[in-house]
Amino acid sequence: MILINGESKAHIEISDRGFQYGDGLFETIEVRDDQPVFLERHLARLNSGCRRLHIPCPDAELLRLEAKELCRRWHTHRRAVLKIIVTRGSGGRGYRQPDAIHPTRVLSLHPYPDYPETYSERGVVARFCATRLGLNPALAGIKHLNRLEQVMARAEWSEPDIQEGLMLDVNDYVIEGTMTNLFYVKNNSLYTAELVQSGVAGIMRGIITALSVDHGLPVIEHRFSKDELLSADEAFVCNSIIGVWPIKQIETAHFSVGPVTQRIQSWLDKFARNDCMEAG
Amino acid sequence: MILINGESKAHIEISDRGFQYGDGLFETIEVRDDQPVFLERHLARLNSGCRRLHIPCPDAELLRLEAKELCRRWHTHRRAVLKIIVTRGSGGRGYRQPDAIHPTRVLSLHPYPDYPETYSERGVVARFCATRLGLNPALAGIKHLNRLEQVMARAEWSEPDIQEGLMLDVNDYVIEGTMTNLFYVKNNSLYTAELVQSGVAGIMRGIITALSVDHGLPVIEHRFSKDELLSADEAFVCNSIIGVWPIKQIETAHFSVGPVTQRIQSWLDKFARNDCMEAG
């Protein structure tokens, strides 16, 4: 089920700059009981990403209405995934953008992926990817449509018992998973990569940071190596669709699902329920 | 005029991974007297780019036939631009590619841009862009669809008397123009950036390198700074559509259109005419 600029259709002009250059952004949002979860945060990030790329962001109220309309129409699904793509639209001359930008907005609903419940409870297995994240402060943090690095990294393994690949940047610092942000726990503090040169500043990452600080758990954004990660007390990956998956194994290193990760999961559950109640 | 997988149409499924992730490559080819110029070289680069991204490349003979069919249908235009896009097609789960990849091929013809003749003869004005090229050896050299850096750089200026923006990488080395490769001449040698961490290895760059070596002009690929470029005897930018544009000015530094650049232009003219005759 797809809305392109408010119309039900499934095709886009090939001249769209999203297709030509990856000139746009996206959001991937969990839908629970017909409600897009943390919608306002996603819309705020979309807006800030558009500002950084100088794309006029579609009106938040319009996106809100279309998102809710789409969810209502598909209400037989208890859980789903809403994807919002905004591109710089068509036109311009080569890389040069047109004088008047008419952005394209695409909202689409997808089945919720059938991840086993055990992933959240008992943890997942991760590996390190050989594909590195390039460095570019101008694009770091933005959930833009230039995702070849993630595609290349995800293509490195097909074993079904490995659930996520961890990506290093070209300087060998650990940054994130192919589709997730990464945290680790050491001596009752929470650590995650600073995303100033690469990476996507995930909504779930932001919420976890805020909740942890609120609950008195220090959160440190810094640069860290594989070895620092492997000597952690606990580690987990997160995104808006999966929530939090504890990591039980990275290659040959084993971790137990620890108390800090479990505490964060319970803060998050409560917080998400409140968000749904407010939205409903 | 557009052919998508052999059919005349102008729209692509939004599920195409080219739109979702910029998961694909492209070629931009000059068409002269109904003939795509240097077509075999473009098809060879497309093939090698596909191999690097693990996309099965559409059959060269098929692309050749479709390219020529498109040019014939549009034969009223003496000159045109043929663009070929190949993506990983639709399917897969998130970044993960589908088990069976059915690539999408899009061939489209566009009017030749109306650049004044003076650009080739008397040179162009260039500026340095603030937007940097990120570093990633896995993607360096490939003409892939992740082009946000170029879009951002090209959006930095709108003065019509500046024809190209030169891009540095995040380490301050000069790499290329937003839509061109860059060469400079110093003491009768030709210099250009090594494209091991960023940049696009242009067809015209390859031809100029080969022709220069054939004619006894040494070509050195290396890392160079703004200052080294600004102290050059001559400089020029090139691509498959514009050929060679001498640079007459970079910000406040002035250059004259020198004998080495002119010699390269004449080698290139002759070489392109031969290619057209062979293709015709």
TrEMBL record, chains A, B:
It catalyses: 4-amino-4-deoxychorismate = 4-aminobenzoate + pyruvate + H(+). Pathway: Cofactor biosynthesis; tetrahydrofolate biosynthesis; 4-aminobenzoate from chorismate: step 2/2. GO terms for biological process: 4-aminobenzoate biosynthetic process; folic acid biosynthetic process. InterPro entries: Aminodeoxychorismate_lyase_IV, Aminotrans_IV, Aminotrans_IV_CS, Aminotransferase-like, BCAT-like_C, BCAT-like_N, Class-IV_PLP-Dep_Aminotrnsfr. GO terms for cellular component: cytosol. It comes from the Bacteria. PROSITE patterns: AA_TRANSFER_CLASS_4 (PS00770). Its EC number is 4.1.3.38. GO terms for molecular function: 4-amino-4-deoxychorismate lyase activity; pyridoxal phosphate binding. Keywords: Folate biosynthesis, Lyase, Pyridoxal phosphate. Its cofactor is pyridoxal 5'-phosphate. It is an enzyme of class 4 (lyase). Homodimer. Belongs to the class-IV pyridoxal-phosphate-dependent aminotransferase family. Involved in the biosynthesis of p-aminobenzoate (PABA), a precursor of tetrahydrofolate. Converts 4-amino-4-deoxychorismate into 4-aminobenzoate (PABA) and pyruvate. This is Aminodeoxychorismate lyase.
